[in-house]
Amino acid sequence: MAELPSRSNQTEFPQNRLKVRLVTPERILLDTDATSVTLPGEAGVLEALPGAAPLLTAIGAGELLLAGGEGGDQRFVIARGFAEVLPDRVTVLAEYAEAPDAVDKPAAEKQLRDGQKQVGEAGDDPAKYRAARSVVLEAEAKLGRAGQ
Fold it and tell me: pTM value?
């Protein structure tokens, strides 16, 4: 049986920081360092800190918060994708990601109305209901209304 490396043999993390990368299909939105990353996992909000155990998780709609970044704390609205958390870095692959001030508010309001209509029309079909709720949650995240 292989012996696990001792803590003293593991790489030390520079200044207790994480390398953070936020990628969408169109571009790399963020490539920086931070002291922590908070993001909306499918099962709930999670926070990644330097030295965290490896994790791969689906992400939902909500806010990604970077603490202790080079330019101070930063916020992004993200939706649908995956996050890989490693002891020294976090990579987020999101279908949608924007800074809150770059969100198209009228389009998000329309998306919210459309999603609410889809929820009402879903009836007893769980798949249709989940899809409609996803649309609503994404719109609420874009509008800064998550959890309301």
Answer: 0.76
In angstroms, the CA 102 to CA 112 distance is 17
- Cα–Cα distances (Å) from 64 to 12, 17, 75, 113, 121, in that order, read 25, 17, 6, 24, 31
Tell me the pLDDT tens digit for each residue of 86-118.
Answer: 999 999 999 999 988 888 889 989 988 999 999
Query: For residue 113, what are the domain limits?
Result: 103-142
| Separation of alpha carbons 4 and 27, rounded Å | 38
Please give the helix or strand (H or E) that residue 90 lies within, else none: strand 89-98
Claim to verify: residue 41 and residue 20 sit in the same structural domain: yes
Residues 93 and 126 in one domain: no
